[in-house]
């Protein structure tokens, strides 16, 4: 049996683009409304719901557990143009499910 939860968060990036794997100091913690059962494998599907900035916002997810996950916006590189990583507030919807 699968369990599903959904939510949304208003997220912005005031930091430079993060390129160091595992550095989560600029991530935001999202806590699920109800924890998933202990021992569950949980996946999170984030999707940008708004279009407030001219650059494309990338979304990074890290440390998904039964109680929540870490998220940050990380602007996407555009061809040869390197993003500065900063982005205005966007609404990010998410769906979390057990697999």
Automatic annotation (TrEMBL):
InterPro entries, from UniProt? H-type_lectin_dom_sf (IPR037221)
| Top-rank lineage group of the source organism | Bacteria
Can you say what this protein is called? H-type lectin domain-containing protein
């Amino acid at each position: 049996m699968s369990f599903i939860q959904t939510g949304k968060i208003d997220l912005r990036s005031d930091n430079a683009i993060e390129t160091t794997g595992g550095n989560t100091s600029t991530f935001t913690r999202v806590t699920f409304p109800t924890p998933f059962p202990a021992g569950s494998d949980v996946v999170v599907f984030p999707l940008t719901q708004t279009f407030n900035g001219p650059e494309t916002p990338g979304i990074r997810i890290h440390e998904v557990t039964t109680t929540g996950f870490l998220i940050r916006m990380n602007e996407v590189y555009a061809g040869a143009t390197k993003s500065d990583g900063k982005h205005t507030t966007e609404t990010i919807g998410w769906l979390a499910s057990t697999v």
